[in-house]
Amino acid sequence: MKDQRYPLTWNKDDFSIKIFCSIPNIATGIILKTSDAYFVVDPGDGILRDLNSEIGTKQILKISNIFVTHGHHDHIGGVWSLLTYLRVMRKSTPLTIHFPKGCVEIESIFNAFDQVYGNGLTYKINLNHIKKMDGFKTNNVTVEPFSVIHKEFLNDGSKRQVPALGYKFIYQNKSICYGGDTAYCDELVIQAKDSDLAIIEAGHEDEEPDDMHMTLAEAKSIGKSAKEYFLVHVPEK
Ligand SMILES: [Zn+2]
Ligand SMILES: [Zn+2]
Which CATH architecture describes the domain 8-232? Predict the structure, then answer.
């Protein structure tokens, strides 16, 4: 485990990841780079600013894929501005947004964007509603989505499970496992084990385990099964 001060960066050969931030209820923002591709993962508020300082105004147009773990605002707050920026700057290559099937937040943002700007848009937006946890390959990166357990409160105080995924990214025999927001679950345990890097949330406020986020102890126990790990989404005091 490394010091949890943002940004967190990790790289092996041509494969790298930079976590601009991951603060529960505020924002997440992650860029994944290979020798020929840029992916954005969980574009929360501030992602455009962070991408601009990281890769610059022109390179942002090369982003080919956005991976969303779930629809909570701290993971998708920057989607509208990113899509609009790409339009204003006349991106010409396609963009695919991957997200869990049933994520109404992404569907709603896309529908609204399409309604406002769909006419004459310079780039194509593909939506990948992920339901089956089959791996696929894009830009020479193998992507393995997996289901995680994450809930939210309804207005009456009850909780409901939200469509939520983690992703494993494999490139040139190196793997990064990102669990998104999740309670302790077997799927994450399996995926994180022996990864070159595991990015594990420790978003729970106290020591008593629950079904929304992980405690520090739970997160560390999974992180340690990987070759290296970052703990993210740790509540700020
Ligand atoms: Zn979150
Ligand atoms: Zn969440």
Answer: 4-Layer Sandwich (3.60)
Cα(52) to centroid(ligand 2), Å: 25
* Position 2 pLDDT exceeds 50: no
Residue 177 has pLDDT above 80, yes or no: yes
User: Which ligand has the minimum distance to the alpha carbon of residue 70?
Assistant: 2
Shortest-distance ligand to the CA of residue 152: 2
* 3-class secondary structure, 175: strand
pTM of the model: 0.97
Q: Are 65 and 138 within 8 A, CB to CB?
A: yes
Q: Inform me whether the pLDDT recorded for 1 exceeds 80.
A: no
The full set of domain ranges for the chain reads 8-232
